[in-house]
Write a structure and sequence with these properties.
Layout: H1 2-27, H2 32-57, H3 61-67, H4 70-81
Length: about 90
């Protein structure tokens, strides 16, 4: 639980930093060098966000979709209905 809360906070902070860099690059001086640096920063932070999300959830996004599909919905319905209404 603590790991997910802390990881979610870090992910939000990375997204805010990307937005701040984007605004700074566009608003202050949109030169080619600044745009290239912004692109590099966005790539690095995207990789960090992806890695952090995999660490928090324990599986890559394409594997979570398989694990959290119909089986999860069925399990939730069974839990909601109780043991006598399966």
């Amino acid at each position: 639980m603590l790991r997910q809360a802390f990881g979610g906070t870090l992910l939000l902070a990375l997204e805010i930093l990307v937005a701040a860099d984007l605004i700074r690059t566009v608003a202050v001086s949109p030169t080619l060098d600044n745009v290239l640096v912004l692109g590099l920063i966005v790539l690095i932070r995207t990789f960090l966000s992806f890695s952090l999300e995999v660490e928090i959830n324990g599986a890559p996004p394409w594997r979570r979709a398989v694990a959290s599909g119909a089986a999860t919905i069925k399990q939730a319905a069974q839990t909601a209905l109780g043991p006598d209404r399966r």
